[in-house]
Amino acid sequence: MITDRISLNAAVKYLDQFEQNEGKIVDILFSVRDNMLNVSKSVTFNDLYFLKAFINKYAPPTTFEDADCSPFLLFELKKFSVVKNGTAKNLIYTDESSFITRSNNIGQFSLETFNREYGNDWAEIKSVFNGIEIDEYILNQVEYIDCGYIEIHTASAVENLKNLYNKYK
């Protein structure tokens, strides 16, 4: 509930700006990665309204007291479409280094700004997420030891998360 909120809020911030400049954003696709099992899956949202509702319900503001009670999830924005000039076929997607589009309806300045600003924030978020090390002396202790009985994340990783959380909460 910590890294998911951070990664989703950063995306919403820049998607909101993009929507104000270019048009309504629809068909938002994220990949979701779990730090404990390193499992990835995908999730889609119809538009920013549904994305914000999801954040409010499933990733509300939280404290770090129960940080060891559930896995950290990282939501990575993969693609979205913009309704502009009467069409929703203005697809913007990532090529793993930046967001690109083949649509002539999308302003290059908006796309460059999105790539620069969201890209910088995303790199910071991903770096902190990848730095979350499990300090686990009993294999899979999360499955059979009561939450909070043993801290499973290193202190430095939690401190980095706290700084990032305060920035994006």
Task: Summarize the structure in short.
By secondary structure, the chain is an alpha+beta fold. Helices cover 40% and strands 25% of the residues.
Outline the structure in words:
- It is a single chain.
- The protein is α+β, with helices and mostly antiparallel strands.
- The chain has 4 helices and 5 strands.
- It has a 5-stranded antiparallel sheet.
- The longest helix has 23 residues, at 108-130.
- The mean pLDDT is 85.
Question: How are the elements arranged and paired?
Answer:
Layout: H1 3-22, E1 24-34, E2 40-47, H2 48-58, E3 73-84, E4 87-94, E5 99-101, H3 108-130, H4 155-168
Helix pairs in contact: 1-2, 1-3, 1-4
- Radius of gyration equals 17 Å
Q: Indicate the percent of residues in helices.
A: 40-55%
Oligomeric state of this protein: single chain
* End-to-end CA span: 11 Å
Give helix and strand order, one letter per element, not per position: HEEHEEEHH
Coarse shape: elongated
